């Protein structure tokens, strides 16, 4: 792979493309930028591009203020760009796709990205739940494609799941371990089962917590406290669902219900709350209130 040495044993891709400059895409771009890569974010239109640019600039500013990087704001921003032109990704060594969790959209985007990349480039998806093998099916180089599942918020989340599809090469998995180390995070390698390791377990706990709330077992705060104080969870399952987004969790539950069976059936309360626009932190209300 074409790149520069940044950490012992880890080779950084010199140029990283991130497709979709939303919550996850900006966080991922920021992580690679701080690790020394040049970063291009691809957005769908000018408005979304301007938003992504602002969000990245703000994340960079915070890192400089907090002293998490020795480089200056202007220097870092000079190594980044937001574009709506897919051909700007042509010289990327690594692309991370982070568009919304929609199979048709991701399948289309991945094929279009692959078409502009060099044969030596690596292609990855930040999907939370979709099958890497399925996403790889129409690709010309499925051996160079894998899941690179980051967590929200990216800067403070140390885990990255590397998801190996049926046709992902061992070389791709080895390269991915290096990228994850290079950005200061810890990789786990997971085979391509629905929900991987994290979502499958995390969502089943959240769904049960919601059913407990429906049953009137305890208040949302007390159900969360049971897990935080009784089981040493850093955040309770209902608060975490608010942070992730009830709509995001519902989407994953529906997918896991279809693939893994009845135990992932979304509880009626979750469906009702999403329909009522109670999406958690981003809408100001979920299982808890989020005034800011
Ligand atoms: N939010 C989370 O907690 C979380 C955690 C891990 C993984 N993920 C996964 O990351 C992915 C992105 O999630 P998100 O929360 O960042 O979503 P988001 O809605 O915040 O961002 C998606 C971005 O993609 C852009 N986009 C849409 N269509 C596009 C196109 N054709 N070309 C370029 N850009 C396009 C949108 O404008 C938007 O900015 C999803 O697959 C999601 O499942 C999300």
From TrEMBL:
UniProt keyword Oxidoreductase present: yes
Family membership noted in the UniProt record: Belongs to the 3-hydroxyacyl-CoA dehydrogenase family.
Lineage top rank: taxon: Bacteria
Protein name listed in UniProt: 3-hydroxybutyryl-CoA dehydrogenase
The species this protein was found in: Glaciibacter psychrotolerans
Oxidoreductase as UniProt keyword: yes
Lineage, uppermost ranks: Bacteria, Bacillati, Actinomycetota, Actinomycetes, Micrococcales
EC nos: 1.1.1.157
Positions of the 3-hydroxyacyl-CoA dehydrogenase C-terminal domain: 195-290
Recorded metabolic or biological pathway in which this protein acts: Lipid metabolism; butanoate metabolism
InterPro entries, sorted: 3-OHacyl-CoA_DH (IPR022694), 3-OHacyl-CoA_DH_NAD-bd (IPR006176), 3HC_DH_C (IPR006108), 6-PGluconate_DH-like_C_sf (IPR008927), 6PGD_dom2 (IPR013328), NAD(P)-bd_dom_sf (IPR036291)
Keywords on record: Oxidoreductase
Sequence ranges assigned to domain 3-hydroxyacyl-CoA dehydrogenase NAD binding in this UniProt record: 16-192
GO terms for MF: 3-hydroxybutyryl-CoA dehydrogenase activity; NAD+ binding
Xref: Gene3D superfamilies: N-(1-d-carboxylethyl)-l-norvaline Dehydrogenase, domain 2, NAD(P)-binding Rossmann-like Domain
Any one biological process term the GO annotation gives: fatty acid metabolic process
Positions bearing the site annotation: Important for catalytic activity: 149
């Amino acid at each position: 792979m074409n790149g520069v040495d940044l950490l012992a044993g880890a080779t950084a891709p010199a140029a990283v493309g991130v497709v979709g400059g939303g919550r996850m895409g900006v966080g991922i771009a920021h992580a690679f930028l701080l690790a020394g890569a040049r970063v291009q974010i691809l957005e769908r239109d000018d408005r979304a591009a301007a938003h992504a640019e602002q969000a990245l600039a703000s994340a960079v500013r915070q890192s400089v203020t907090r002293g998490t990087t020795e480089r200056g704001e202007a220097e870092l921003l000079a190594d980044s760009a937001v574009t709506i032109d897919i051909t700007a990704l042509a010289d990327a060594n690594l692309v991370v796709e982070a568009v919304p969790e929609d199979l048709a959209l991701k399948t289309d985007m991945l094929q279009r990205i692959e078409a502009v990349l060099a044969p030596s480039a690596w292609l990855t998806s930040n999907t939370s739940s979709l099958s890497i093998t399925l996403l790889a099916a129409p690709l010309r180089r499925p051996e160079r494609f894998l899941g690179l599942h980051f967590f929200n918020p990216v800067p403070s989340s140390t885990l990255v799941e590397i998801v190996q599809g049926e046709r992902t090469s061992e070389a791709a998995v080895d390269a991915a371990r290096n990228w994850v180390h290079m950005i200061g995070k810890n990789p786990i390698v997971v085979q391509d089962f629905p929900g991987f390791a994290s979502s499958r377990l995390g969502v089943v706990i959240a769904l049960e917590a919601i059913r407990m709330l429906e049953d009137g077992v305890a208040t949302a705060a007390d159900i969360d406290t049971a897990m935080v104080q009784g089981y040493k969870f850093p955040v309770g399952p209902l608060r975490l669902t608010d942070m992730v987004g009830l709509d995001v969790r519902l989407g994953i539950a529906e997918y896991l219900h279809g693939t893994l069976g009845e135990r992932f059936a979304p509880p009626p309360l979750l469906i009702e709350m999403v329909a009522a626009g109670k999406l958690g932190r981003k809408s100001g209300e979920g299982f808890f209130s989020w005034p800011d």
